[in-house]
Amino acid sequence: MVKRSAGGGEVQFLERLRSRIRLPKGGQTVAGIGDDCAIFRPRGSSEDLLFTTDLLLENVHFTRETHRPEELGWKALARGLSDIAAMGGEPRFCLLSLALASWNGAAWVDRFYEGVLALAARESTPLVGGDLAHAERFGCDIVVCGAVPWGKALRRDGARAGDLIYVSGVLGGSALGLAQGRRSGAWRRHACPEPRLELGRFLRTDLKATAAMDLSDGLSLDLHRLCLASGLRARIEMPPVFAGASGEQALHGGEDYELLFTARPSVRVPSTFGGLPLTRIGTMHRGRPGAVELDGRPLPALGYDHLRQS
Amino acid sequence: MVKRSAGGGEVQFLERLRSRIRLPKGGQTVAGIGDDCAIFRPRGSSEDLLFTTDLLLENVHFTRETHRPEELGWKALARGLSDIAAMGGEPRFCLLSLALASWNGAAWVDRFYEGVLALAARESTPLVGGDLAHAERFGCDIVVCGAVPWGKALRRDGARAGDLIYVSGVLGGSALGLAQGRRSGAWRRHACPEPRLELGRFLRTDLKATAAMDLSDGLSLDLHRLCLASGLRARIEMPPVFAGASGEQALHGGEDYELLFTARPSVRVPSTFGGLPLTRIGTMHRGRPGAVELDGRPLPALGYDHLRQS
Fold it and tell me: Which strand (E) or helix (H) includes residue B272?
């Protein structure tokens, strides 16, 4: 899951796609491709709706040998909820499209749904529909809808020069868990990530974060994307590292599902939120959009890029 | 795509799933699993939102040898729009999750998007987001959001005893096109189906249809589902058949994406709508829920069931 080659295949692809798509002016879709969620404004409603979709595919995102079905179900929904968290939203419902392979017996599918429904119940996110098919490989696509007060969604493009950069939690645990396997203490970080929904709402309501996103593909790549979206560059120092993980895993590992956010320097950001550390790691600057420096040296965007030619 | 074995794998699966899921009472999700779309009620809005997801998978729904990429893109979106049409909705936006295989070069992907975007532009359904991954096989999941006035969505479960049953268009063309291949006159019926959006709105606003759904899996199976949902049985005669198609293809073929609907007997249903025939094929009756009779004899539900053991 963790690749080690430079490049921006996905960024380029999305730019090309975006250039071909024009959102209707004055329409109900107020943000489209390129953020954690699309934003839709229902007629007459006091809320904006957030939409995110996430694929979870056999032999791409997991293998049948390594992952338990209830872990996969949990993780499928957790990834979508993490996108809602990143925009400061409250989840409303989810949809699940499922492609079942011949090796997915009824008991396996039941356990997969147990994982989905356990997290869905905890986060008040009812599963209200989806699609079903048989396929050669297992795959699923989860759609999560969330809501924020009108115009209040946290976005990637709102950071301003001088804003301070923060991350929640400690990074690299997911990559460590994947490398060490399911008997390791870090495995749960990889297999059962926690969407930071309460933190996301706190960023929106209390800290008035100027930008936010979730760390799904690795800090180096995700911060690069936030910088690109905001038209700025970033200077950071080393983020907090999960015990036992390497600096590489913390910087480029991906799938930690912590939140990366920026706030005005005048905002007092607490050192923890609900027991979760909030750590200042750097500052946003004017300069070449997308550039990231770690301890004064360029940090390549080595995180996971689904469309990079490897 | 057209299977010939009896059974109700998907119906049973959905029943089992539905029994495990309880929509919160008084919540914003007013219909869930089992209809063409899920229905969501945004706070303060005068509209209900409709959501549908549809998988389109290599070697399941198509093969790379037989289908052009722009046809696949069109069809992916058309299938979702057809679900919106079936509930009388207006499309609002769509999301597309794409799993790209190694054989999907940049030109192929561009042509696929051309198909999606051509129909999206025609039906004012902007593509606002999605997900991207590489995979062993091409697959996509399209999510379409539509809207209807509050409480006005056409559903499968609203038919009443005595209601008359209608279909739009002529049936079996898609199955014929698939059987004859892309040089045949029927191929376009298979590869580029037309979502009946205007008809769906007309059913809602003018005919006050009591129930409606789209014919995606074959009349025999889809009418069985409508009957099950409404707790009734149906007696029909032969529907209109696409020129050259067999009666089997018209009854069980699937993927015609015409609309099946019921209306009170007092409603005057015109014989055509925008040039499309509307044909009365039968009547809803009290009796064993789900049972369908054709010309007085039981009609087995032989349409395409994604979860049937074949």
Answer: strand B272-273
